[in-house]
Amino acid sequence: MSITTAQLAAGSKADREIHFEVEQFYYEEAELLDAGRFTDWLDLLDDDLDYWMPTRTNRLRRQQSLSIASRGEAAYYEETKESLTWRIRRFDSGMAWAEDPPSRTRHLVTNVVVHHADPADQLGFTTDDLLARSAFLVYRNRLEREDNVFAGQRTDVLRRSGDRLRVARRAILLDQNILQAKNISTFF
Questions:
Q1: Residue 94: left if φ>0, alpha if ψ -120 to 50, beta else—which one?
Q2: Which residues contact 13 (CB under 8 A, 6 or more apart)?
Q3: Residues 6+ apart with CB under 8 A from 97
Q4: Rounded distance between C-alpha atoms, residue 24 and residue 35, angstroms
Q5: What does the pLDDT look like over 94-110, one tens digit per residue?
Q6: Where are the beta strands (DSSP E) in the chain?
Q7: Where are the alpha helices (DSSP H) in 67-169?
Q8: How many angstroms separate the Cα of 148 from the Cα of each of 31, 93, 106, 142?
Q9: pLDDT averaged over the chain?
Q10: Which of 7, 14, 25, 178 could form a disulfide with 114 if both were Cys (CB 3.0 to 4.6 A apart)?
Q11: Domain-by-domain residue ranges, the chain?
């Protein structure tokens, strides 16, 4: 039995070329979000997208494993591509009053680390998929006096579709556990 290149790559760090491609993908995504081009942003998401942002609580050091909500518990976002599409259509309809007038955002993405997905760790994924972690800072301004800063990390599974990458899974973890924002209509 021979070991394939894909088997050797499982869990390993991506090479420079792939790492650069992922960074450029994230910069393009940030540009689309900041320009309010949400329909174009949807094209960067895979059809079976899982977009999840759990809540978190402050816990004692010995209880840190309980500080992040599990699946099925409270979450700011637990979305699919279909539900995000509906949300964006609502923005465009003028019925999303929390975003009329629209917010101005600036997405900063950094500390990008990319590995080849390990099929043993990621159900339904292959070594052709990429596991990417990144840190982000999102500044949001709305009306005259509404300013919000969101900081955190994203863990994505990126899947190649044709000649481009798409987000198949995104888990967003905010550093804050209490949001000062009046609403959370920002995409991360």
A1: left
A2: 19, 113, 114, 115, 116
A3: none
A4: 16
A5: 777 778 788 999 999 99
A6: 45-54, 75-79, 104-116, 130-142, 146-161, 164-174
A7: 81-93
A8: 19, 25, 11, 9
A9: 89
A10: 14
A11: 5-174
At 134-178, the pLDDT tens digits run 999 999 998 888 899 999 999 999 999 988 999 999 999 999 888
Q: Which of 160, 157, 179 is nearest to 51 (CA)?
A: 157
116 is written with which tokens?
């080849």
Q: Return the SS3 of 24.
A: helix
Is 56 in contact with 177 (CB distance < 8 Å)?
A: yes
In this prediction, residue 122 has a pLDDT band, given cuts at 50, 70 and 90, of: low
Q: Burial level of 131, CB count in 10 A (0-12/13-18/19+)? A: buried
The pTM of the full predicted model, rounded to 2 decimals, is 0.88
CATH code of 5-174, in short, is: 3.10.450.50
